[in-house]
Specification:
The complex is a heterodimer. By secondary structure, chain A is of the alpha/beta class. Chain A has five helices and five strands, in the order αββαβαβαβα. The chains are: A alpha/beta, B alpha+beta.
């Protein structure tokens, strides 16, 4: 799937997206940024509740292409600006991380 | 490299993949496992129905330049008429008969999600020149010939060689970096700019065409050290020193020092506050992460400051 496909998932709201053409091959769920940094696969989407600028920095360093912020948490403006700078797409959802993970797993064809 | 595929060294132990898997170049093995049949097959299908006359099939074959035609009912495959069947029909005088009377019904098929190693193996094992490809729902979605495999492999091998050539050029490129030293000043609790130094280091390595997984290791090490300075120190510096063969990252701060360095190296040990943890930091994975991705790692700490030095080899021998 490509980043753009995330925007189509039910209950997902796009906060920042470029053309959304980047390929996504995997996903990772986590809130501990060190763990994300060390273990998230490249070209993946991160499912997290960490809605701040540092999540964007970690995503950029770990070659994560998109962030899905769960539990209806809001994304601060400086986070979205950083996301634009680093070309990381950001989506929000009311879903829990589990629910969002299920939807993404399905979209990735993993279940 | 193509000859390795076509030579097909058949070993008893690896019947599934008819190439020598013990000393073939990894890049070729990865290719034939990574490429799926659906990426290689012809999707532009020319088909006929069971009522189509063999004469008409002969014309279709000539016009479309194919040597075998799948016979379908809807999307379901029920047989194949090959060039050989047509020759037989001409020879024995039943060319005006319908496909269903003479088509080959005993079919060997492949599935679209199989790696092409299966197809290579099938071409080796069976005398057919083409295999029909089905999807999960047993519908006909394509045909694969050895020609499809050859042309895709040529393209992919070409691409891999380009990558290899790029890697060889890397060593000369990275000599430009030789002796470069960048020092980044990191302030206590400056979450605003946290990650800046690491991003700069990543960009520098990227511009020198260092391999992505090496860049990732450097990024992990520099980011963890940078965050340690932000979260735990009274402020300090992150220093990146580039040489043709390695990157050395030094994190030095002005205190307060780590009271128990051995514990700090234990995964999960942390002195971070609740606030820091709520931001997703302070999981106690920082220093262990740095150590695990670095090729060398040293740490010294006293109340006047902590210094961590780690290096990452930019061109590990086994990977070049």
């Amino acid at each position: 799937m490509v980043v753009r496909d995330l925007a189509k998932l039910e209950g997902f709201t796009t906060q920042y997206m470029d053309e959304g053409n980047e390929e996504i091959v995997d996903a990772y769920a986590g809130d501990l940024l060190s763990d994300v940094m060390g273990n998230a696969p490249s070209d993946s989407v991160l499912i997290t509740i960490q809605a701040h600028k540092n999540t964007v920095a970690v995503a950029s360093l770990a070659s994560i292409k998109a962030l899905v912020i769960c539990n209806n948490r809001s994304t601060p403006q400086d986070m979205l600006e950083a996301a634009k700078e680093e070309a990381i797409c950001v989506f929000t959802t009311k879903d829990t991380q589990f629910e969002a993970s299920c939807k993404i797993a399905k979209a990735l064809g993993k279940v | 490299m193509l000859c390795i595929i076509t030579k097909l060294v058949y070993t008893q132990a690896m019947q599934e993949i008819p190439i020598n898997t013990y000393n073939s170049p990894n890049v070729i093995l990865e290719l034939i496992y990574r490429l799926k049949i659906k990426q290689v097959m012809t999707k532009d299908l020319v088909t006929a129905t069971k009522d189509t006359k063999l004469r008409e099939i002969q014309h279709i074959m000539r016009e479309k330049q194919v040597t075998g035609l799948p016979i379908v009912v809807g999307k379901r495959l029920i047989g194949i008429v090959s060039m050989d069947d047509i020759i037989q029909a001409l020879d024995k005088g039943y060319i005006e008969d319908k496909a269903q009377d003479h088509m080959t019904r005993n079919l060997i098929v492949l599935e679209e999600d199989m790696p092409i190693s299966f197809a290579i193996s099938y071409f080796d094992r069976f005398s057919f020149h083409r295999f029909p490809v089905l999807n999960k729902h047993k519908e006909l979605v394509g045909m694969i010939t050895s020609r499809d495999i050859t042309s895709t492999l040529l393209l992919e091998i070409n691409h891999e060689i380009e990558e290899l050539e790029k890697r060889t050029r890397t060593s000369s490129l990275s000599s430009e970096m030789s002796g470069e030293i960048h020092t980044y000043s990191i302030m206590k609790n400056d979450f605003e700019n946290a990650g800046y130094a690491s991003t700069e280091i990543k960009k520098r390595l990227k511009s020198a065409n260092i391999l992505p997984h090496i860049i990732r290791r450097a990024a992990i090490a520099s980011y963890e050290l940078e965050m340690n300075l932000v979260v735990h120190s009274d402020g300090g510096e992150l220093i990146a020193e580039y040489s043709p063969q390695s990157l050395q990252i030094t994190a030095q701060d002005r205190g307060p020092g780590i009271s128990d360095v051995d514990s700090a190296m234990e995964p999960g040990w942390s002195t971070a506050s609740e606030w820091i943890r709520s931001l997703g930091f302070g999981a106690g994975m920082g220093l262990p992460n740095v150590k695990s991705v670095a090729d060398t790692f040293t740490i010294e700490s006293n109340p006047n400051g902590t210094t961590v030095v780690c290096t990452i080899h930019l061109h590990p021998k086994e990977e070049v």
